[in-house]
Structure prediction request, 799 residues.
Amino acid sequence: MLEEETDQTYENVLAEIQSFELPIEATLRSVYDDQPNAHKKFMEKLDACIRNHDKEIEKMCNFHHQGFVDAITELLKVRTDAEKLKVQVTDTNRRFQDAGKEVIVHTEDIIRCRIQQRNITTVVEKLQLCLPVLEMYSKLKEQMSAKRYYSALKTMEQLENVYFPWVSQYRFCQLMIENLPKLREDIKEISMSDLKDFLESIRKHSDKIGETAMKQAQHQKTFSVSLQKQNKMKFGKNMYINHDRIPEERNETVLKHSLEEEDENEEEVLTVQDLVDFSPVYRCLHIYSVLGDEETFENYYRKQRKKQARLVLQPQSNMHETVDGYRRYFTQIVGFFVVEDHILHVTQGLVTRAYTDELWNMALSKIIAVLRAHSSYCTDPDLVLELKNLIVIFADTLQGYGFPVNRLFDLLFEIRDQYNETLLKKWAGVFRDIFEEDNYSPIPIVNEEEYKIVISKFPFQDPDLEKQSFPKKFPMSQSVPHIYIQVKEFIYASLKFSESLHRSSTEIDDMLRKSTNLLLTRTLSSCLLNLIRKPHIGLTELVQIIINTTHLEQACKYLEDFITNITNISQETVHTTRLYGLSTFKDARHAAEGEIYTKLNQKIDEFVQLADYDWTMSEPDGRASGYLMDLINFLRSIFQVFTHLPGKVAQTACMSACQHLSTSLMQMLLDSELKQISMGAVQQFNLDVIQCELFASSEPVPGFQGDTLQLAFIDLRQLLDLFMVWDWSTYLADYGQPASKYLRVNPNTALTLLEKMKDTSKKNNIFAQFRKNDRDKQKLIETVVKQLRSLVNGMSQHT
Prediction:
């Protein structure tokens, strides 16, 4: 049973080996691993299997052998026929080959020609497709070389939208397509470079552009100005107020000259387009518009122009020194905004009205600040006037281009005030020179011709003087007509600034009167006051100054008439400003009068300082002191000069002098440095006071009533009478009574003088031979001193 299983196992192994389905290594390993001596048994089984297969092969070969032999035999028979057929086929093939060689050659030629023809047709078709592209690209190159960049950009658009799609598959087209962005960038750079050159050019030539524009504006305004001048001539023909006339011939000459200048300059005026080539801006704007980058161009242009505006608006540090500096400044600004206005109107969107208005407002604020600062340094009225004319032309020019200029005319009113200030300073110097050159004496005239010359300069009317025979004198000095002429010249100078300010005649009249008032109330008044206070001006000069101011005051009404004839505005108009000459010259007169009083008192002080009293003399000299007689003689001569003054002035001066003399003499008695005084000195002093009273009673200046002038010495007189008659009992008894004989004697004054006399009585033995009288008087003095002290102390306690 075991052997059968073993045999069955080996058969299975052999079957597996023959099947080639399982790995032989595993099959063989199973044979050797099962039992010992399995190898030998397996080999036996394998040999038996091989023998069986050999037997089967042999049987099969024996079964098919006869057929194989028959087939070989048939093949041998066919071999001969096959060889024959091979020879025939080879010969036939050779003949066919020989016959087809020429056909093959012709056929290849035909094929090659057909291919070439097809290729030529294709090339022609493709070239016909490419030629327009190449022609357009060549045209593009020509346009670039000719700097026709806008046309070049249009050509690029055609190439990209129309032509390139036809030939986009070709490499040359790709190269062209790749080159177009670079060409566009080149065009942008070139056009931007042209724009920069343009901006630099207009920056350099903006002053020429502005000068041309201002000339054009001035030329357009000429006709209306000429009409204004003619109108002024019409109401200025008969302008006579005491020979105050505006010369008609002079105006006609000026008008004719101005019209001739207009005719000469008419052909020379160029337009802005004649001076500036704006094509770079147009090209650049069109190029950036085509490129779709218009906003970048607009921003760049505006940014650069704003930078240039700041540079243009920056003035030179010394601009205020000459009118050329101002003119260059204005022409550059005008040139800048004329260009901007042109760009605004010929381009769409590059600059807008809002942008130009913003730029103008910024510039206007800067211009006003610059002019306000620099004009403040101008001290020459002629330069200020030229500046005003430039501002007017500047404003009119820009107003013609649509820019608002009201603030500039407001600025002109500020500058007008400054112009008036410079005029006032200039005329202050003129007045000072006139006063310095004046001799302060009446104007002498020896014949009718000289009389008429003075009358033509100054409106003086005096029938009494006209009746006098030659030679005679005007009461005023030479400075009066000169000052009157200079006031008129000032009015003319002030009028020049009011021209072209677009103001009515009423406003001009008001301005002229106000500026003239300033001249009178401030400049002339100040010059007069300074003149009056000068140390070298003496009493005679002061008297003449008072006379001069009187006549200048009377001439103010003629100045008002003079202004009325210039402006044609009646003085009866409600709002017409009046001239303040009346108060001006009154103030100067009062100052001169005060100075007369002061100088007169100073002169009296000089004489009083010459006094040399011997305060211890026992007996008077019997005559008045020499210094006092000299003083009285001086006063008499001075008061003779005062006869030309108004009565009240001379009377006030005389009263002031007497009062000052009385006060000075009283102070001399009560001087604290004077320790003692004798009765003889009092008597000598009394003689001097008597001379003063005699002088006062002689009426040195007419017009005093009664003994009014003598009352100036009443204090001294009562004090000296008290000491001369030694009437102390009456004084003490009546003190404080309205009817007291010594009402003007102050107890303090009497006590001071009495104590000085008491000290003298002690030291000087004047009454040595009358011892009893001496003792009695000394006792009396001591008693009176005690009573006076008691009286003074009572007054102090009461106070």
